[in-house]
Please model this.
Amino acid sequence: MLNLNSLVQPLLTDLYQITMAYAYWKNRVHEAPAVFDLFFRKNPFDGEFTVCAGLEEAIRFVTNFKFTDSDIAYLRDGLYQTLEAKQAEFETLLQHGLIKKDTEGYQAQAIDGTWHTVEYPQAPSSVRSVFQDCDPDFFKWLKDVDCSQVKIHAIPEGTLVFPKIPLLTVEGPVAICQLLETTLLNLVNYASLVATNAARFRLAAGPDKLLVEFGLRRAQGPDGALSSSEYCYLGGFDATSNVLAGKLLGMPVRGTHAHSFVSSFMEFEDLPTHDLVGTNGQKYDFVAMVKSIRTALNFTRTNTGELAAFIAYAQSFPNSFLALVDTYDTLHSGVPNFICVAIALLNIGYKPLGIRLDSGDLAYLSKEACHIFKTAFDYYQISGYKPIIMASNDINEETLHSLKQQGHEIDAFGIGTHLVTCQKQPALGCVYKLVEIKQHQRIKLSQEKSKMTIPGQKRAYRLIGKEGYPLLDLMMAAGESEPTPGSKILCRHPFEAAKRAYVIPSQVIPLHHCVWNGHRTYPVVPLGKKRQFVLDQLKLFREDHLRPLNPTPYKISVSDNLYHFLHDLWLEESPIDEIS
Amino acid sequence: MLNLNSLVQPLLTDLYQITMAYAYWKNRVHEAPAVFDLFFRKNPFDGEFTVCAGLEEAIRFVTNFKFTDSDIAYLRDGLYQTLEAKQAEFETLLQHGLIKKDTEGYQAQAIDGTWHTVEYPQAPSSVRSVFQDCDPDFFKWLKDVDCSQVKIHAIPEGTLVFPKIPLLTVEGPVAICQLLETTLLNLVNYASLVATNAARFRLAAGPDKLLVEFGLRRAQGPDGALSSSEYCYLGGFDATSNVLAGKLLGMPVRGTHAHSFVSSFMEFEDLPTHDLVGTNGQKYDFVAMVKSIRTALNFTRTNTGELAAFIAYAQSFPNSFLALVDTYDTLHSGVPNFICVAIALLNIGYKPLGIRLDSGDLAYLSKEACHIFKTAFDYYQISGYKPIIMASNDINEETLHSLKQQGHEIDAFGIGTHLVTCQKQPALGCVYKLVEIKQHQRIKLSQEKSKMTIPGQKRAYRLIGKEGYPLLDLMMAAGESEPTPGSKILCRHPFEAAKRAYVIPSQVIPLHHCVWNGHRTYPVVPLGKKRQFVLDQLKLFREDHLRPLNPTPYKISVSDNLYHFLHDLWLEESPIDEIS
Model:
């Protein structure tokens, strides 16, 4: 697999993972077999479902997990930039006169324009390392670490998942599992969050609308943007505006023009040619055609620069003409100008795509635009053609619901900021907790009960009822025998004794698959297939779990055996307070 | 300069930039000289200031701006993955048995475990390209594009900036400037947003608290995380937990241990050695010392596994012992256990760092912990030593203000999610607008007045009053002569005629510097220097502009000349509606 991002490497982690690895190593417990669960505690966006994502990137990270010599040099000695890199930088500055040499040696110009003496880079910069008093043999061990002793079970990407069920369980030597924590969380957290957000936008827009992700300029930097594009598509979007995502991931990419293109034209004289070749191969005076339609329809007070820009764009892309109509005035200039160009294109055999609205009252403008279209097309006796209306401008999930209520004529949405930044809840909050070490199950107690963990290695099953809907997810200890269709099984709330039910599943879907066992053991699933899997599941689940307002929680349960085990361990580990 | 992120490349852009470039080229206006402004319209977080950031990455992007052959192949022919990459992937899957060969040819295993026939990769995948009917000479031009004809003026990183003033102005051939838009926005938007957020957290915490960024696991993927670490530091944080940020950027990195480390120890028998060498070089039975302190202080009901974990950590890092105290029970187990280990360390010459609280009522727990410390240290007649108290757990700007009001004993904060995701407002909303083409100034009108642009190439100046505070920022047309200290100048609100003032500045700071003129013309400013620049400015500005509640807006003005020019153009470009 291509490793898309060179930043995904073992040092992309919190320092405490490495200090803990040292402390495990120093105490000779680093090889102790351990199990960690990666899970979240609450569904995002006040909803009752989450789309899990990020697994493919996690597997790639584990595949390539290896500390380099320069990583080790940084950790052990605090070296943070190579001499070559520093010298190259210095030379560039010298070349452009930002560093100069005079009788006092080298001088560099500071932010306020003043000059200060600097030294030519002699040796790597270094910072005090927290490891400087540590046993240097640790770094020999660290240099050899890889994931050949690690085993990972995971829920496939695109599965609808719920709180407390591990998305990944990572087994292996405790110190190595610990070193994977932060990066795995980084890769799964945002991917799942934004995929869930995309799925919610899809539910809100309905299955027949075209949804295009426009978030590149507002995402958290370059990779934030690439992750958004990938996982919005996985969550049910149709395309992105991000060209690099198209190149690297093979996703559909969409886009036409911006306001600046419109503003850059002022008059018909800006057009170098008036011609356009029709689909019949014949050359037409396209500008004259547009002008005569403009006169006939009495659209002569529209902005001429805008009309020239539309003509220029249509001459460049006659097969995919889509015009942004709000640069000057949507209904009085943009829409009429689009119509003149669109009719001229239709006349010579092309099928213009439509318009994009980027400001104002989108429901109203889309309906008004349709009226103007209709009048003009009736005049020209054009039938069977309807331009698509695309809308953008700060659209969020609520806007989509509200537009649906108001009624509108929008066919496609371009959605950026609120989609990729996940405005409503900008982080998912997955955690990675130790649940077993040296065959002892561990529990993390907390003054906050929601922060407690479910101990031990577990497997989860989705139990499907006779109507075909998922009834609940059941977690069992790893050794327990799987539930079987047609057989009754007791499913219990993990923390509340009185909440339990006997379930007779019609079908049992094991949620956890072994994806890594020293090497990859799970196929690469094409992105389009994962996307389809999400869309299928949005139909599979009961609608009340998915609705935006007061959704019904989907039940998460544990087996009777796991329930008792969990509660015994809880009591055992809690200190008994003495009150006097 | 090192280019930290391989994803920052010309294709990291919206498709419409490239379709527009084609339309400019096709209409032979691609070389037309143009000026674009990159600016924002509203300060984030209901505040009245923004810290600008991202310039260094923007300059690096411009430096390396060049389309590759594979970029061109993707755009022209829709090729999105090389044959080599596809074949290598296929081979890996074959090797691990996820693809098998039988009499029917190759078969691959799908997500549900079923097998399907697949073909060995023969040729690159391709998608329909929007450019497929375009003039192929465009791609020859595109292949040669670089930034040698581009000129950029910018405001230095770390400057406090305000709405409407361009952070960057980009001059050059219109098609090339257009191709830079999305990537520049991506690089500046989040960087400035998170730097501003960090500066607000710094103001809320006060200048003497240690602030550590903990956001790696909740950021938007790998690079989102690296950007957070860099720009939080620039905005006034002291350190990060992100090791890669330390290695690549030379920033201070902090971290100790997590709950999992504590949970992984169950009893004293888990400790392979009881010894620790003191600062005097002598070996001590450290475990016995801790146990005797525990008995003397009557802390015997604490969790033994936790105490063993603290001992193990102290043996590994005796010089930097900081204990996470909430795994079982903060006041009844964690804090007493820390005290036993800390006193033992003090006895043999080390200075333990302190504790970290990660749940519960942080103000209360920090004060209670101090009481327990005092009682224990009094008993042992330890004076002049106070462990630091670090707090983490979902801290946001409001938490910091509220803690300050309640009173607390916290010395350091670890802040993740709300800092890096910018919970309060997850996007800044910088835009990039054409303001001049072929020496004609352009304006973008909009039904929403706040979306209007200020036309033409401009320079901004910060006018400082006699008290030393900045009075306002003034934008002038690029040709106008600079304001001079001691001379009266008329400063006008850009859109409201009656709002204007004569200003006599004591000092004039030009905000725009030429940073690129076909090559780099501005020095690389070290990250630490940019950070200090932010901290200095937080002291320079009047406090009422910076306060969290109802801050006073800082004034942004235009020269009289620019005011008149702007209003004339506005009227000229607006269509006059006819009402009947």
Summary: Chain B is about 35% helix and 20% strand. The CA atoms of residues 199 and 235 of chain B lie 5 Å apart. Residues 257-352+359-392 of chain B form one domain.
